[in-house]
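Project outcomes to date are best conveyed with an example. Our students and postdoctoral researchers have been running inverse folding experiments weekly, and each run begins with a structure described purely in tokens. The record below, which covers 146 residues, was selected by the lab manager from last quarter's runs and is presented without edits.
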């Protein structure tokens, strides 16, 4: 019998959709009442398990009257316009992330489900999403040290 050497080269198929890593969901942010145009208020972050991905971020639905925009490449959500934001007013955006290299068909890319981003004018109570947080601080730690 003859032996034949076969070399298989396996490549990753871009078949996994991206997912948001921002927590908690729905996403929450705060905007200063007097925020200037182009002020960053939040950064959308998504991951894609595939090696060959190109994630872009999109504003799907805007319930804010055009007060915010999303940078397609960086995911940074910024203010638009110069009108002051209202105290305790909730501004709601619906966003998604798409993998521009992960096509489902000729018209559609793999994407995250549509997610809600709630932005409140003024202040918002602290947000915790883990059930427990621990930090040890030495007794002799300097003030304002990490």
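After processing, the design step wrote out the following sequence:
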């Amino acid at each position: 019998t003859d032996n034949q050497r076969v070399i298989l080269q396996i490549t990753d198929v871009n078949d996994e959709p991206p997912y948001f890593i921002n927590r908690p969901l729905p996403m929450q942010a705060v905007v200063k009442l007097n925020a200037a145009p182009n002020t960053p208020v939040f950064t959308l972050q998504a991951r894609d398990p595939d090696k060959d991905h190109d994630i872009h971020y999109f504003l799907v639905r805007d319930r804010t009257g055009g007060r915010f925009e999303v940078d397609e490449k960086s995911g940074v959500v910024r203010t638009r316009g110069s009108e002051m934001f209202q105290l305790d007013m909730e501004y709601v955006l619906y966003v998604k992330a798409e993998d521009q290299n992960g096509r489902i068909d000729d018209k559609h890319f793999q994407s995250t489900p549509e997610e809600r981003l709630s932005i409140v004018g003024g202040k918002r109570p602290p947000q915790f999403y883990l059930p427990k947080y621990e930090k040890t601080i030495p007794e002799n730690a300097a003030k304002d040290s990490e």
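The chain has one domain: 19-121. The mean pLDDT is 90. The training component of this project remains on track.
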